[in-house]
Amino acid sequence: MLAMNYRGPRRVRIDQKPEPEIQHPQDAIVRVLRSCICGSDLHLYNGSVPDTRVGMTFGHEVCGIVEEVGQGVENLKTGDHVLVPFNIACGKCVFCQQEMYGNCHESNPEATAVGGIFGYSHTAGGYDGGQAEYVRVPYADVSPTIIPEWMDLDDAVMMTDVVPTGYQAAEMGGIQPGDTVVVFGAGPVGIMAARCAWLFGAGRVIVIDHIDYRLEFARDYAPAEVYDYKELGDVVLFLKKTTDWIGADVCIDAVGAEATGRAMQTLLGKQLHLVGGAATALQWAINGVRKGGVVSIVGVYGPIGTLVPIGNVVNKGLTLRGNQASVKRLLPRLMEHVRNGVIDPKALITHRIPLEEVAEGYRMFSAKLDNCIKPVLIPPRARS
Questions:
Q1: Is this prediction's pTM over 0.70?
Q2: Confidence class of residue 214 from pLDDT cuts 50, 70 and 90?
Q3: Which residue, of 127, 153, 233, 273, is most buried by count of CB atoms within 10 Å of its CB?
């Protein structure tokens, strides 16, 4: 089959790889109809995530058709159209029982934090992902969800990560009616978080980035006030001024390990990889939120230490919340929002790219070319 093949930092290509096979009675094989390149994939692409091994296939946002099921699978059958959440979750461990599907203890038992994730390095279990013609889906009775007849495939693939991650970012903020919410990062997740902040009663939503076309998209889609941090000078000072010197009620870090904006963070976290990422956005969030405020973190950082002003967290009485989105928990509510027109996931998709051109897709998305917000990969058989 055709599959994306990681060859080292900033080097990916399309290759022929063996088709996946059933390895466990609870497995399913899904023929991919849509897969996305995620901003989180760029952390892998740029070499920022430890133990990303040559030969791996990325891709944790997938929908497709069930081609084969293991003997133990009861909830799916051949021919079902499914969306596959990025969490690989057993459904039975102590964390899955608390609906913390992103922290499944069985799908990634050698880790102490994150559960299994499709196509996201061996720190997340070493599972090949769905930027391919086929993907093996473990625990097929748990997370894969049949796509309703009324739902478009482009909406479905966005429900595997972007929509629930953006929604959970707002949810973790504990937004109260009238709150001022600041979102750092105008990528797809940041834009969705800004959109979802209104659903929780925000009175004011601000998005900060430095790419003009992304800010324009966020302004129109969220909708939100948008600011280029390069034009603000001191970001924290700006946030203080615009909130009567109090600070935002909620700050959301939707950037993660490869934030720009501070030279020392960039040097240590992005260039030398001496810490778990450039925590510039997180630092701005901690310093820009009000006393007693909430910082919600969905940006991806590495597992090693990161330069964070923890003293300010303590002295300001802040609440920090972060996690991988529990997609399965959120899907019923979010599907209703899509059906009712409250959220329009596919509107974030700007580029539909043949799977064979995956290398160009990564180059374009990484370099912020052609006003790319969200690229979707389409395998050959899905285009016929």
A1: yes
A2: very high
A3: 127
